[in-house]
Specification:
By secondary structure, the protein is of the alpha+beta class. The protein has one domain: Heat Shock Protein 90 (2-Layer Sandwich). It is built from three helices and four strands. It has a four-stranded antiparallel β-sheet, with helices on one face. The longest helix is centred in the N-terminal third of the chain and has 21 residues.
Length: 118
């Protein structure tokens, strides 16, 4: 997608539709939606070039990846109480079971463990 802030809401809706189609439990859909929003917004704000969102669901995991052309890896930063931004990756880190950045720094990802089937 083109790096346009106005696309974030549209991408969020598409991601939610896929998660529901994949029968991801509702609480994880909510967390996944927020992670998609934060990672895509970070990529638009701090990345370069087009933004790519990939989502995969296996029996045990939901993985969300966002890629752009900036090789500087996403990093947690300290946000003061008065700061209006700077908390996105803290949200991702607190919601996801694990998150990280690819070796080339261009992809930031988050994974969620799906509950086992009864």
């Amino acid at each position: 997608m083109a790096p346009d802030r106005f696309r974030v809401a549209q991408i969020r809706r598409i991601a939610v539709a896929h998660m529901r189609l994949w029968a991801v439990p509702a609480p994880l859909v909510e967390d996944g939606q927020l992670v998609v929003s934060e990672l895509v917004t970070n990529s638009i704000e701090h990345g370069h070039g087009a933004v790519l969102l990939r989502m995969r669901r296996t029996e045990s995991q939901l993985r969300i990846e966002v890629t752009d052309e900036n090789s500087a890896p996403a990093q947690l930063r300290h946000a003061d109480d008065e700061d209006l931004c700077g908390r996105g990756l803290f949200l991702v880190a607190s919601l996801a079971d694990v998150w990280g950045v690819s070796r080339d720094g261009r992809t930031t990802w988050a994974s969620f463990t799906l509950p086992g089937e009864s």
